[in-house]
Amino acid sequence: MIHRKNNVLFERIKVITSLPDAASADLLDIEEVDRLNSSDKLQAVINDAYVSVVGGKFAYVGKDRAKAVNVFDNSKYDIYNGRDLVLWSSMANTHGHIPMTLMRNQTDDHNLHDWLFNVVFPMEARLTPEHVYHGTVLGLAEMIRSGTGAAADMYYHSNSVAQAALEAGFRLNVCCDGKKEGADGKNHVVPEEISDFQSHWQENFGDLIRTSLLVHSVYLYEPYLYRELAQQTSDLGISVQVHISETQKEVDDCIAKYGRRPPAQLDNFGLLSDSTIAAHCVFLDDDDRALLARRGVTVAHNPSSNFKLGSGFADIDAMIKAGIRVSLGTDGAASNNNLNLYQEMRLAGFLAKGLTKDASCLTAPQLIRMATYNGMRGLGFDNTGCILPGWTADLQIVDTNNAAMTPLGNIDAALVYSADSNYVESLMVDGVWLMYKKELKTIDEEYAIAEANKFSASLRA
Ligand SMILES: [Zn+2]
Predict the structure, then answer these.
(1) Ligand 1 mean position to 99 CA, how many Å?
(2) In a domain, 35, yes or no
(3) More confident of the two residues 291 and 114
(4) 98 and 236 share one domain
């Protein structure tokens, strides 16, 4: 399936972007005074901007229409009128189980261990690759509509998940399970399965798909299996997705079994690196945070899921102060119950302010950075997540001409505190429109909803 990369000129639009570093502001064709619109030097805000997208990349971002047109070099382009619109990066959802959309609104009000072992696992035993495919398509439609253009997925039947993402033109870091029962009756890692999965998806579809290894948590497997998994990470250089310290029980059980807290034990197995995505991290002490920072782990903060499952509060302010790269996730739709990062961004900010009793902690620019640039880095996509020339054309357009966003004021505050996903008008990934003026372009939404209802019902039959 080939999607057309569009050449587009956005005219007189408001642009807001995180910056990877202060020097990258020089890539923008703006005066210093424009950058000062933000209190955060790692963020730029440009009013009445022109943005050119050519061949899947941003080619010009600045104030000069003639220069913006020049980059098309006489090839055709579409014009997008930016009146009352904000252009910013599409978001990255760094933790979730996308096919669990099929279990939405059916597994509620259980504490985590009861929820997982007594409610979720029995339903998952009935899953086929077809269930997973249709659950994924539904989740992708929901994410695209709510401003998300990239996600991590930790689930089973991963070829079906990756196939759905590829067809939708969606960025994905997808887990390979890669374990099977051996002759001894125990589960073992199957190295060929993991290397075949990795080479198939990354070599053929590396623009959009990254692969990683499913290491569910420190509590689900016996020690020999973690060592087999760690062997794969060093042999193949494959990244890891793992839940860490989601509940107090997990921490207590890990100390009782291994004499170490979960981060230290996973590190002892050899499973923490700068390509590890660690979901939750609700119960960390200072040593845990220092270790995660030292290893360069990306933390996926999932405040809605942590609240809903009664797990607790992750202290994001302390993580950022410790030097950890923090991003945002929704977790699965069975524990949230939506995949809407606008809600996570807002909740993450309020939670941090309430927890520290300091309203200046976790600012709107920081939350935007977590939702975009940090998330894309965590998923393994370089030069993605900022609106900068030479970076991939991943963006969303938000319509601000509505009562809830009037007056607009500071754009970062407007996006974090008063915007709603309903105001996302368009979304582009790698130069391809996945949603254009409210219409999904790569997913047949009506069909996706009908199929998801059918396959969801069969899980309960
Ligand atoms: Zn999870």
Answers:
(1) 12
(2) yes
(3) 291
(4) yes
